[in-house]
């Protein structure tokens, strides 16, 4: 098979591992910087052009779209879909997962466990917003934040009001969520491929840090999921329409709750913590699911 990995940087761990795994399984693997592609949008001969050459011989694509490049990245994925090329995650599913509010609303509609969450833009009723999630302590998040940036733990009502007022001054959209104290600064990353959890790790935040992101000094170890946690991860990825996903859970007193569903989950942390060859699992999934010039689904744009 001819597989294109859509990535801005061929030296990134996840991109390198996917390329390596694909080659080991006998495929022709190409890393394509999607930002340097342009598209010929026509009914009869649609094309994606890269380095002056149309990519007409690609059987499947693996999108690794950066959060800040979602608009153009999903447009390129969508163009491949128009051409009939299989994608591990389709453009609409990537867009859904990148919108944190939309993601939570979809999960809520499906009855999946979530932290109590409030959303606001320019409300004057700050006290009412705080009470929506049960009062302080609470977590305030910028909708546009990634890797723990723009996430604040407000331990008192006054601190919460101050942070909300500051974000309002920036004309920012925010989420306000209950603080799951019993999680003790740890979360679970469940890596889902093709409707199955293939690996899971527990990420523990650094001392004094409630955010568990590995980018912020957190540590990871392999973890055995409960049946409910496994089911929640699979249901969450399915609800978002993602075939490959990283589902982040917290262990709360009322069961697992979903914090985020990531459409381009990193491979480094989970492979090192669990010893699972996640890249190989993804390539194997592509082999089983894709057929030349045929997408698996027709999702309305």
From TrEMBL:
Q: Which family does it belong to?
A: In the C-terminal section; belongs to the RimK family. Belongs to the RimK family.
Transmembrane helix among the record's keywords? Answer: no
Look up keyword Magnesium and say if it applies. yes
Cofactor(s) the record lists: Mn(2+); Mg(2+)
Q: Where does ATP bind?
A: 141, 178-179, 187, 211-213
Pfam families tied to this protein: RimK, Rimk_N
Q: What is its EC number?
A: 6.3.2.-
* PROSITE patterns attached to this UniProt entry: ATP_GRASP
Residues given in the record as Mn(2+) 1 binding sites: 248, 260
Name the chain's protein: Probable alpha-L-glutamate ligase
Cofactor notes: Binds 2 magnesium or manganese ions per subunit.
| InterPro entries assigned | ATP-grasp, ATP-grasp_RimK-type, ATP_grasp_subdomain_1, RimK, Rimk_N, Rp_bS6_RimK/Lys_biosynth_LsyX
Q: Where does Mg(2+) 1 bind?
A: 248, 260
Q: Which organism is it from?
A: Rubidibacter lacunae KORDI 51-2
GO terms for biological process?
SOS response; translation
Leading EC class: ligase
Gene of this entry? rimK
Q: Which GO terms describe its cellular component?
A: cytoplasm
**Domain ATP-grasp, which positions?**
104-287
UniProt: Mg(2+) 2 binding residues: 260, 262
Per its record, what are the GO molecular function terms?
ATP binding; metal ion binding; ribosomal S6-glutamic acid ligase activity
User: Which positions are annotated as binding Mn(2+) 2?
Assistant: 260, 262
What are the entry keywords?
ATP-binding, Ligase, Magnesium, Manganese, Metal-binding, Nucleotide-binding, Protein biosynthesis
